Every structure is written in structure tokens, then in C-alpha cells.
């Protein structure tokens, strides 16, 4: 299997980065929109895609552990390199925590977990009122809910910093960092 080098990232790294990036940005925006406006028909789509992205996230974490992180290219101040590293860790850990907290909130809340109709965890209907559900564990559901909100906000901030960094590399430093994440071969200057 192809591995990351300084001049070229593996297609595994590039594909996983962009699939996860697009899905996470979409889920963050849809999440806030559906919650604030109480658009309940979006909930099953949000939850299904959230579970699916978890599969890609696990593959990426395994890939990063096996393959290491891409090495930086170009000249960067030490402090900026450190900030970028921290942001990468926040992003990758955030992508693990968001689906886990979401599944905890829905699953333990009694709403069940299903991926476009494929049931992974059944709902827990209230025997007294079939239109309602009973929580399996209210404390865990609440903790999941809180974590989903807090980590979601941290991710918005981290992604803004991350995109600003990518644009700085491309337009100001004019190095190959962004092109390399688009799968192109670059000079190691
Ligand atoms: C990486 C994946 C995910 C991201 C980035 C994400 C993001 C978000 C965000 C930003 C919100 C709004 C939170 C707020 O405004 O406080 C939200 C709400 C929600 N998410 Fe997720 N989510 C993900 C996965 C999941 C999963 C897997 C589930 C469940 C299986 C889920 C269930 C929910 C529910 C039920 C709400 C609404 C909560 C409410 O109405 O109070 N999410 N999500
Ligand atoms: C338009 C949006 C985005 C752009 C332009 C972008 C650009 C980049 C670039 C150029 C790199 C390479 C950095 C390097 O070589 O040191 C990178 C790496 C990375 N990005 Fe993004 N990114 C975006 C969105 C996201 C999102 C939404 C996430 C997280 C959910 C994310 C997570 C990461 C991580 C963890 C890395 C480290 C390398 C890896 O594991 O793939 N990015 N990004």
C-alpha cells in the first residue's frame, strides 16, 4: 500500500481527509440548523450520516497510527507548526468524539440508532404512550448531549483556524501544502 512521503501524500490520506472534511462540515451545519429550528425530519439523515462518517474516522485513526502524520514542508515558524499540530489533534479527536457522543445521546435516550433504516439499536417505546420513548440511561444520554454541543463548538473554531492556515499556506507562503492535500506531487522546499 502506498504511504505518505514529503513530496506526495497517499491516496488513502487524501481521500479520507476530503470525505471526512465534507461530511463533518455538512453535519456541523445541519446539526445546528436542525436543532435551532426544530427541523425533525433532518434528524434521521443527520444521525445516519454521523454513524457512517464514524466508519471512515476509525479507518483514518488506524491509518494515522500506522503511517504517522504528514511531514511539513516549507519554512514555518516553530509556534505556527505547534499550533497546526494541536489543531490537527483537536480535529481528529473531535471527529471521534462527535459520533460517539451523538450515538450515546440518541441510543441512551431511547431513540435508537439506525442508518437509513438499518437498525443498530432499537428504540425503547414508552408502554403507556407509543408515541414517546423512555431513556435507557438518562445520565449517559445527557452527558452525550452536552459533549455533542461543546465538542461541536470547539470543532467550528478549530476548522476555521485550519482553513485559515490552509489558505495562508496557499496564497501567502505559496508552498505546496494545500496542493499536496489535493494529491499532487510537490517540491520539498
Ligand atoms: C461527526 C459526526 C457528527 C457531527 C459533526 C454532529 C454535529 C452536530 C451539531 C453541531 C449539532 C448541534 C448541537 C448544538 O447546537 O448544540 C448536532 C445535533 C444533534 N446530533 Fe449530531 N453530529 C454528528 C453525529 C451524530 C450522530 C452519530 C448522532 C446520533 C446517532 C447525532 C445526533 C444528533 C442529535 C439527536 C442532535 C440534536 C440534539 C437536540 O435536538 O437537542 N449526531 N450534531
Ligand atoms: C475546506 C476545508 C479544508 C481544507 C482546505 C483543508 C486543508 C488541509 C490541508 C492543506 C492539510 C495538510 C496539512 C499538512 O500537510 O500539514 C490538512 C490536513 C488535515 N486536515 Fe484539513 N482541510 C479542510 C477541512 C478539514 C476538516 C473539516 C477536518 C476535520 C474534520 C480536517 C482535518 C485535518 C487533519 C486531521 C489533517 C492532518 C492530516 C490528516 O490526518 O489528514 N480538515 N487539511
Tell me the radius of gyration. Answer: 19 Å
Mean pLDDT: 96
Q: Largest beta sheet: what is the strand line-up?
A: 1-2
CATH architecture: Up-down Bundle
> What characteristic shape results from the CA principal axes?
elongated
Largest sheet: number of strands, sense, barrel closure: 2 strands, antiparallel
Structural class category: mainly alpha
Uncertain spans? none
Report how far apart the termini are.
26 Å
Annotation, overall tally of beta strands: 4
The SSE string, one letter per element, is: HHHEEEEHH
The distinct ligands, each listed once, are: protoporphyrin IX containing FE
Give the helix tally. 5
Helix content percent band: 55-70%
CATH C-level label: Mainly Alpha
How many distinct domains? 1
Tell me about this structure.
With 189 residues, the chain is mainly α. The protein has a single domain, classed as Fumarate Reductase Cytochrome B subunit, CATH 1.20.950. It has five helices and four strands; from the N terminus they run αααββββαα. The chain has helices at 11-37, 43-67, 78-108, 138-173, 177-181; strands spanning 113-115, 118-121, 125-126, 129-133. Strand 3 (125-126) and strand 4 (129-133) form a beta hairpin. Helix 1 runs antiparallel to helix 2 and helix 2 packs across helix 3 (78-108). The longest helix is centred in the last third of the chain and has 36 residues, at 138-173.
Key attributes of the depicted protein:
single chain, 189 residues, mainly alpha, Fumarate Reductase Cytochrome B subunit, two-stranded antiparallel ribbon, two-stranded antiparallel sheet, 66% helix, binds protoporphyrin IX containing FE
Amino acid at each position: 500500500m502506498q504511504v505518505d512521503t514529503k513530496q506526495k501524500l497517499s491516496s488513502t490520506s487524501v481521500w479520507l481527509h476530503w470525505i471526512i472534511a465534507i461530511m463533518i462540515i455538512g453535519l456541523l451545519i445541519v446539526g445546528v440548523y436542525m436543532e435551532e429550528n426544530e427541523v425533525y425530519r433532518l434528524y434521521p439523515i443527520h444521525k445516519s450520516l454521523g454513524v457512517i462518517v464514524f466508519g471512515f474516522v476509525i479507518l483514518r485513526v488506524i491509518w494515522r497510527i500506522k503511517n504517522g502524520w504528514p511531514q511539513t514542508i516549507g519554512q514555518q515558524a516553530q509556534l505556527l507548526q505547534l499550533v497546526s499540530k494541536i489543531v490537527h489533534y483537536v480535529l481528529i479527536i473531535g471527529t471521534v468524539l462527535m459520533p460517539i457522543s451523538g450515538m450515546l445521546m440518541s441510543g441512551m435516550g431511547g431513540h435508537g440508532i439506525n442508518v437509513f433504516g438499518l437498525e443498530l439499536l432499537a428504540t425503547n417505546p414508552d408502554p403507556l404512550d407509543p408515541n414517546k420513548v423512555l431513556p435507557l440511561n438518562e445520565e449517559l444520554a445527557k452527558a452525550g448531549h452536552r459533549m455533542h454541543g461543546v465538542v461541536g463548538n470547539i470543532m467550528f473554531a478549530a476548522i476555521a483556524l485550519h482553513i485559515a492556515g490552509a489558505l495562508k499556506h496557499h496564497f501567502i507562503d505559496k508552498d505546496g501544502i494545500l496542493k499536496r492535500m489535493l494529491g499532487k506531487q510537490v517540491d520539498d522546499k
